[in-house]
């Protein structure tokens, strides 16, 4: 049955997921806060600032009118940067109150809120009416908009404490190119999604500095160990980090040139300043705020996260990358 779906956020991931949902036979409205972008998507079926090579399905509608996008929708998918998620959720409250039906709430963003250190399902739960909380779903896993846009093969997970809601999301997104598993560990899925961005900055930096494959494999492996340690301290299931939203997403983000986090690290490794990197990327680099949030969470819980500490020192204390890498190698010997 055709579903009415609102996708909030028309950057690379939001617009590409909206396009996928249209191709799956749904009525989809993609909400953006930029008038020019809505016009371009509606008239030219392009979104050149984010996906320069993609022509979108001409059935995809874009709007800056949140009510038009989300009122009476069957599903509402948030795909905005982490630090504006709360703001967008607040704008949605009145629309939800005036809707004739109760949509399923999904988010596909990856990060931790600065200051509160909260996961995105927690942020949404605080802002939207209570009756939506139990059926919230998180869509996550190794997935770059560039690959999904060209119908390459992508496998992700839909996590919820409500299995029926997860299954509903699974069936909305599944296609011959896009496979969705279900998962009941929202904490693990969201922690894996946010923390892999931190390690990906480190992996990009190693590349930018000219280190080889051994160093990159070691960083990913030891990065996974500290992601799991922090996640488990907050109630995640250890095995979740062995799945698509854990090691799967870590591998793609820490090795792909599509990754904004990896590219940011690579440019830092090549000697650019953080300001230059963020000013030229033109898209969100979630690992930058998530490094700060993860660093502070780790201190709060007394969890050892040496790689996160090192990236934090580079991003927030202006430490030299080569020096922090040397520091990691010079730590006392440990058991694995
Ligand atoms: N790009 C990917 O391949 C990909 C894949 C999986 C997950 N994600 C996650 O999805 C989230 C969004 O990433 P993206 O790649 O689409 O980012 P992006 O930088 O490409 O686009 C972000 C969009 O958010 C919009 N935005 C910013 N502030 C806003 C506000 N106050 N109100 C409404 N819209 C606002 C911007 O205008 C822009 O269109 C991130 O958390 C990212 O980690 C991205
Ligand atoms: O481009 P990045 O670094 O934000 O990563 C995008 C996705 O999270 C990869 O799964």
Automatic annotation (TrEMBL):
Pathway: Membrane lipid metabolism; glycerophospholipid metabolism. It is an enzyme of class 1 (oxidoreductase). Sn-glycerol 3-phosphate binds at residues 110, 141, 143, 196, 249, 259-261. GO terms for molecular function: glycerol-3-phosphate dehydrogenase (NAD+) activity; glycerol-3-phosphate dehydrogenase (NADP+) activity; NAD binding. The active site is at 196 (proton acceptor). It catalyses: sn-glycerol 3-phosphate + NAD(+) = dihydroxyacetone phosphate + NADH + H(+); sn-glycerol 3-phosphate + NADP(+) = dihydroxyacetone phosphate + NADPH + H(+). Residues 4-165 form the Glycerol-3-phosphate dehydrogenase NAD-dependent N-terminal domain. Belongs to the NAD-dependent glycerol-3-phosphate dehydrogenase family. This is Glycerol-3-phosphate dehydrogenase [NAD(P)+]. It comes from Pediococcus claussenii (strain ATCC BAA-344 / DSM 14800 / JCM 18046 / KCTC 3811 / LMG 21948 / P06). The gene is gpsA.
